[in-house]
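User: Thanks for the earlier help. One more: Sirohydrochlorin cobaltochelatase. Can you show the sequence and predicted structure together?

Assistant: Of course, both are below.
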Amino acid sequence: MSVSDSAAFMHGLILFGHGARDPRWAEPFERLATLTRAGNAPVTLAYLELMTPSLGEAVTEQVSAGCTRITIVPVFFGRGAHLRRDLPALLDACRAAHPTIEIRLATAVGEEESVLQAIAAFCLRARDT
């Protein structure tokens, strides 16, 4: 493994979703994780509730794998109560448990303009078929 390869493994990515009782609900998230793994960086799914791993477990897993920086991407359509109330408390706990690790938070996926454009294009294609 080259130096640049090992550096790529130091920045982990966690895709954070809500969770559901039906395991089939996670299928698109698993496909998303597979697509984001193309760069060989550690990618982990984590869930707020009803599914595992939790966010804390996912952060610990990535730290154990050698990540010194972790970006958490909320795979939510918008910033509702879970992202405004629950996620900050979870982030605080993760940062307290791993004070030497840089844990960053991205914008909710559904609030990103390019994602909204892709969804709008899909909706228009659906209308026209």
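User: Great, one quick takeaway?

Assistant: Residues 1-9 have pLDDT under 50 and may be disordered.
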